[in-house]
Every structure is written in C-alpha cells, then in structure tokens.
Specification:
The protein is of the alpha/beta class. Helices cover 39% and strands 30% of the residues. The chain has five helices and seven strands, in the order E-H-H-E-E-E-E-H-H-H-E-E. The protein has helices at residues 18-33, 38-51, 110-125, 131-136, 138-156, and strands at 3-10, 60-61, 64-67, 75-87, 97-106, 164-172, 175-182. It is globular and about 45 Å long.
C-alpha cells in the first residue's frame, strides 16, 4: 500500500546555498528513511534545479523530484526544513529561502503529487500561517507538519469523487506516515 511520509527534519539548516542545502536535506531524508540512494537523489535534484529554480516568493522553496520505487516501496517523502540564515536559492527574484518543503514523489501517481502541492498551499492560505511567523516561531514550525498532513487527508478524501481512502495515520518520533489506497 502506498504511503506519504512527512517529517520535520531540521530547524536550522547549516547550508547557505542551494546545492549545499539540497545535499544536506537529501542526506537527512535518505538516512531517516533508509533509501540508500543518496547520490542518485542529489543528482536528480541538481538536474531538476538546472531546468528551473524551485524557489517561490515569500522565502519558500519546494524542490521536488520524481522517482521510481518498487511496488513495495510506493511512497512519497516530504521533509520540512527551516533555516534561520538565508539560503541563496538562485531565484529569479534574488530572494533567499528560509523554509524548504523537500519532496520525493513516487513517479507512478501524479494525482498524489498534485494533492501534496495543493496541501502545501492550503497550509499557509487556510491556516493564516505566514512564512515570517514560521521562521521566527518554533511552535508554528512544529505545527506545520500536522497542518500539512491534515490538509492532505482533507484533499485526498475529497478529490475526484473520493477515489482515495486513508487507511491509517501513524506517528513514530518525528515522522507521520499516512497510508492510503485507491478505491
């Protein structure tokens, strides 16, 4: 059964540029989930960023890649990182990044990718959470993961005539795992 794994990894990234930040994020995600694909993942992120920056306005970046996983590992991974120091993301506007939603998507399900993107938007729009507040306030940063998963569940169960079912939501240390299936 496919899963969405969401975790709050680092409150303070050590990196100050995009390449270092992607490597730091990848090492944390790869180690946490035991993917054993660090070099492949870093290379995919760097190639994706060459085609276009994943930075958005308001100090957010959403770097994302699509990977093939064996059926037994049909998962999507979300890491949420924060940096007190600005990270130079080489954006078109020149704005630095402080909040990173790091995404590894299972290539096989584009609907889930879209649900995750919509959920990130909803996290800030509906909750009236502002990026500046999240950067400064530890409690809001910690709350982001729960709000994001809640938004994913809401969208997942109300999309395309309810084609998805949430089977189980579990929490283990800093990881929330949402297990879902198609109806």
């Amino acid at each position: 059964m496919p899963n969405i794994h969401c975790t709050l990894i680092r409150e303070n990234l050590l990196s100050t540029d995009k390449e270092e930040a992607l490597e730091e994020c990848t090492c944390h995600i790869d180690n946490l989930f035991n993917l054993k694909r660090t070099d492949e993942i870093i290379k995919a992120f760097l190639e994706k960023e060459k085609r276009g920056s994943s930075s958005l306005i308001n100090k957010i970046a959403i770097p994302h890649i699509y990977m093939d996983f064996p059926d037994t590992e049909a998962s999507n991974y979300i890491g949420i990182f924060k940096s007190a120091e600005p990270v130079d993301w080489s954006s078109l506007t020149g704005d630095p990044v402080h909040l990173i939603f790091y995404l590894i998507h299972n290539k096989s399900d584009s609907t889930i990718r879209n649900i995750i993107y919509a959920s990130i938007g909803e996290t800030f729009r509906k909750s009236n959470i502002f990026v500046e507040e999240v950067i400064k306030n530890h409690s809001l940063f910690i709350n982001i993961k729960e709000v994001l998963i809640s938004n994913i569940v809401n969208i997942l169960t109300n999309v395309n005539g309810k084609n998805y079912k949430v089977n189980k939501i579990s929490s283990d240390n800093d990881i929330i795992t949402l297990n879902y299936s198609r109806l």
